[in-house]
Amino acid sequence: MRDPVFYDQLKRALVIMKKNLRVYYKRGPVVIFGLLMPFFLFLAYFIGRNMPVEQLFTGLLAMTIFFSSMSIGPAIVPFEARSRTLERLMATPISVWTMLLGDVAASFIYGLLISFVPLAIGLILSINITNGLVLVLGMVLAAFCFSSFSVLLSAYPPTDVPSTVMMISNLVKFPLVFISGVFIPIWDLQDWGRIIASFSPLTYFTDLVNYATQGISYYSVLVDFVALVGFAVLFLVLAIKIHQKSLPKRLA
Amino acid sequence: MENAVEIKDLSKHFGELLAVDRISLEVRKREIFGFLGPNGAGKTTTIRILTGVIKPDGGTASIMGYDVRKQSLQAKQVISVVPETSNVYIDLTAWQNLMLIGELYGIAKKDRFERAEILLGKFELYQRRNQVARGFSKGMKQRLMLCMALLTRPSVVFLDEPTAGLDVKSARLMRDIIRRFNEEGTTVFLSTHNMEEANQLCDRIAIINHGRIAAIDTPENLRMKSSGLKSIEVSFNKLVSVDVMGRLSNVAQAKKMGDKIRLYTDEPQIVIESLLAYAHSQKLVINSLNTLAPTLEEVFVKLTEKQGGD
C-alpha cells in the first residue's frame, strides 16, 4: 500500500526542484557556463592531439554531464542559508531528505538537458552510436549520480558561504576528471591508475560511453550500471545523514 | 485540547551556552501571546524549536497536540512563521513565492489560487504580484511574508519582530492585520521588543531573560503585580525638598520631575495619607496628586535587570 506521507514528500520534492530550476538554473550565465566550461576544457586538452572522433566525443560528453550536473548543486544549501530561505524551508512541512531530493532533481534535469548538446554535436559529426539505449540510460544514471554527489559536497562544512563550498567542490571535481578515463582511456592506465579510477563514478560513465560508441569497455556494462547506481545511492544517503546533522549548525 | 502551544522543561545548548533553560509555558487557542526579552534572551531559539527548525536538547513542546520532535511534519503543517529578517525568494515574483508555499503545504491548486488573490488584495500587493520580490521595499516584503504565512490557514502563526524597521503606517497596518487574523481564530505567538505593541496586542505576555521565563501574565497584571514600581506624583504651591518627601513613611524613593515630585512605594494609600497630613501640618496646598501604575517597559526593565544581576 502507498504510504501517503512518503508520496506527499515526493510531490513536495518536485516543488523544491521547480523552485531551484527557477531560482538557480534558469539564468543565462548558468546555462552558458554549463556549456562553455566543459567545451573549453575539452579544447584545451584535445586540440593538436591525433585522436579518433569517438574518443573526443566520449571526453566531451563525460565532462559536460559531470560539470553541468555538479555546477550549482553544492552552492544551493549554503546560498539558501545565507539568504535565510533555508530556515523558511525547514519550517515548512518537508523533511530534510525531501529538500535534498529536490536539489538533486534540479541538478539532474539541468545536467541531463545540457548534456544533450554534446550528444547533438556527436550526432551531427556522425558519431557511430552502436547502443543508443545504453548511452541514454548511462546519461540518466550518471546525471543522477553526479547530482547526488554535488549535494553531498555541500553537506560539510556547514557554512553559509557559497564560495567556500565551490572551492572545495572544485578541489574534488578536477582531480576526478583526470583519473576517470576522460583524457586517457582506462585500459591505457597503469595498474595503480586503474585502481584509483575504480573509486570515481565518472570512470563508469566514461566506460559506458566508450561501449556505446566504440563497442569496447574496460568493465562489463552491468558493472558500469551497478557502480553508477551504487555511487548514487551512497552519495544520497551520506548527503541526507550529514545534512541532517549539519543543518542546525548552519542555521545557528 | 485547550492549548495551541505547550512547552515543558524545554532546553537548548549551543556548546557552552545555555540558550533556553528548562522553560515551561502554555499558549491558549485564539490567544495573542507576547514573547518578550532582551537580545540573546532565548526568544528566537525558542521559536526555532517550536517551528521545527532546530531540535531541543531536553523537554517537550507541542503545537496543537503534535509533538514538535516526534510529529514534526504534522506540527509544521499547522503553523506558519514570519521571521524578523525577510526570507522571501527575491528572484521569484510575489505570486511564485505564494505558490511555492502553497505547494509545499499541499494546498490544492484552486484553493491556493483563490486564497493568494484574496490575500494579495488585502495586503495591497495584487498590482505587484508578477514582479520579482528583489525590488520590494522592506514593508512590502514583510506584507508578502504575512501573505505567505496566512495562505496556509495556520492554526498558530509565529511572528518574530513583525514591525521592526517598518514606518509608522506599515507598522500600524501590520498590527491591524495581526488583530484581524486573530479574530478569525488564528493563535498568534508574537516575539517583540516593542512594549507598546505588546501592551496593545497581547492577551498574555511571557518575559524571557537568560533563557529563563521571568514572568507570565496579562500586561495589566504584570504592571499591577510589579512591587516597588507604583508611584505617586505630587506638586505643591510652594517648593518642597525631595529629601523631606523621601523621609515620609513607606516611600522607597523620591525623585524630582520638573515642578513635581515622584514618590515610589508599595503602599500608595499610606503615602497619600502621609502627604495629606504633611501638607496640612505645613499649611501647603496640593496642586496635583496622581497615582501612577508602572509602564510595561518599566516592568520589563525591572524583571530583566533583576535576573541579570543574579
Could you explain how this protein is built, in words?
The complex is a heterodimer of chains A (252) and B (310). Chain A is mainly alpha-helical. Chain A has one domain. Chain A has helices at 4-25, 28-46, 53-69, 73-82, 85-90, 96-124, 132-153, 162-178, 191-197, 201-214, 221-251. The radius of gyration of chain A is 18 Å and the shape is elongated. Chain A starts with a helix and ends with a helix. With 310 residues, chain B is α/β, with parallel strands linked by helices. Helix content of chain B is 37%, strand content 29%. In chain B, the strands form three sheets. Chain B has a six-stranded mixed beta sheet, with helices on both faces. In chain B, strands 2-1-4-5 form a four-stranded antiparallel beta sheet. In chain B, strands 12-13-11-14 form a four-stranded antiparallel beta sheet. Chain B is built from eleven helices and 14 strands. In chain B, helix 3 (94-104) packs across helix 4, helix 3 runs parallel beside helix 5 and helix 4 runs antiparallel to helix 5. In chain B, strand 12 and strand 13 form a beta hairpin. Chain B is elongated and about 80 Å long. At the A-B interface, helix 1 and helix 5 of A face helix 2 and helix 3 of B.
Largest interface: which pair?
Answer: A-B, 24 and 29 residues
Can you count the beta strands of chain B?
A: 14
How far apart, in Å, are the first and last alpha carbons of chain B?
37 Å
Proportion in β-strands of chain B: 25-35%
Oligomer: heterodimer
Task: Summarize the helix and strand pattern of chain A as letters.
Answer: HHHHHHHHHHH
Largest sheet of chain B: 6 strands, mixed
Gap from first CA to last CA of chain A: 39 Å
Query: What is the CA-atom radius of gyration of chain A, in angstroms?
Result: 18 Å
Instruction: Indicate the structural class of chain B.
Output: alpha/beta
Task: Give the integer mean of the pLDDT values of chain B.
Answer: 88
Number of helices of chain B: 11
Percent in strands of chain A: under 5%
- How many domains is the backbone of chain A divided into? 1
